[in-house]
Amino acid sequence: MTSPSTRGPGPDGSPDEENDASAASNPTRRIVVAGGGIGGLTAALALERVGFSVLVLERSDKLGEVGAGIQISPNAWRVLDELGAIPATEAAMVYPEATRIGSARAGGIVGRVPFGETARHRYGAPYAVIHRGDLHAGLAETARSRPGIEIHLGMAVADAQEDEDGITVEIQGSEGVSSYRAEALIAADGVWSTVRRRLLRLPSADYSGRVAFRATVPVEAAPDLASFTGLWMGEKSHLVHYPISAGREINLVAIVESDWHEETWSAPAERDEVLGYFKDWPQEPRRLLEHPHNWLKWALCDIGPGAIWAEGRIALLGDAAHAMLPFMAQGGAMAIEDAYVVARCLANDPDVDEALLAYERARKDRVERVMRTARDNARTYHMKGMMAFLRDTGIRYLSGTRLLSRFDWIYDWRP
């Protein structure tokens, strides 16, 4: 079987041949990772670091990330640093000085959360923002440099059978199905995870009733925003912006409460459609929204608390396990944390079933608290009338340091 790969194939092009250099001496220490996105590549780096040979299967024929920006808070930055991924990504990162909080009801800025040196001093690690594509490319570059990681493109998990000694993963490629013997299967294949639905027979994520419009603009269109992230809150809508691409662009994410009528979960959007939701907003955020002519929209979906993450030798990671609303900017960070913890659990316990259950137990309370916080923020950001007035007054009353301290439980997590 032949397939696109980031490394040259073995004699017959099969995954078994391609990873024999790193696994031949210990063939039972193999792990399959379904999904070559940010969570999957971070998992591969974490697993390889503790001694596993890792086969990454990516359904697409090329590696890449959908969407523009991602926020790398100190908790995620520490993991990337420990896994050696910072050198390949740091040049594209931006370290904002602060987040400015604006209110459409109040007509201006009502609060400021300090980052920059304040975050470095408080958490021992920075708060960064980066283009998803730049982060993904850096992770891929780092993974390719590790002898224990193989990345195969145009391949996906079709099925898997477990027994006492391991798991046989059936791999669908362009020329048919092949088998690969491993110790465990880690599914980092996203919100519409095939492993979640087909192998674990768990329900898919649900539409949240919210749509995210995304676009980027050159930093020259809003040079005063080059050093800051921003949050504007409004009735049934809010706007987030932050610099990406080493400060060359501003990422815009406008989120509204709306029905979804498209045939797919993402689609192009008309500029007038976006502006229509914000026609009554203050001039400053409206002027920013007027710059892009090309928008994309996504239906925001999430998975409720209490879902299963691990069963037998299969475990879910990132959005496949706990797709969440983006109102804490922690979806990517939680996947990065998951990757580190699942690798440590597998390294510490030779009983794979128990190791994966330990991973679920170690992660679930924290992740579900983040999920609940994101849902609470969704309600807070979209308040109207007297509730919005009280919200704005409360934010004005709190100092920037007090506002930042509310996130200590998230940002101070250490691998």
Automatic annotation (TrEMBL):
Span list, region Disordered: 1-25
SUPFAM superfamilies: FAD-linked reductases, C-terminal domain, FAD/NAD(P)-binding domain
Cofactor (UniProt): FAD
Record-level Gene Ontology MF annotations: FAD binding; monooxygenase activity
The keyword Electron transport is assigned to this record: no
Pfam families given in the database record: FAD_binding_3 (PF01494)
Keywords of the record: FAD, Flavoprotein, Monooxygenase, Oxidoreductase
Source domain of life: Bacteria
Domain FAD-binding per the UniProt entry, residue ranges: 31-373
PANTHER family attached to this UniProt entry: GERANYLGERANYL DIPHOSPHATE REDUCTASE (PTHR13789:SF318), MONOOXYGENASE (PTHR13789)
Name of the protein described by the UniProt record: Salicylate hydroxylase
Organism: Breoghania corrubedonensis
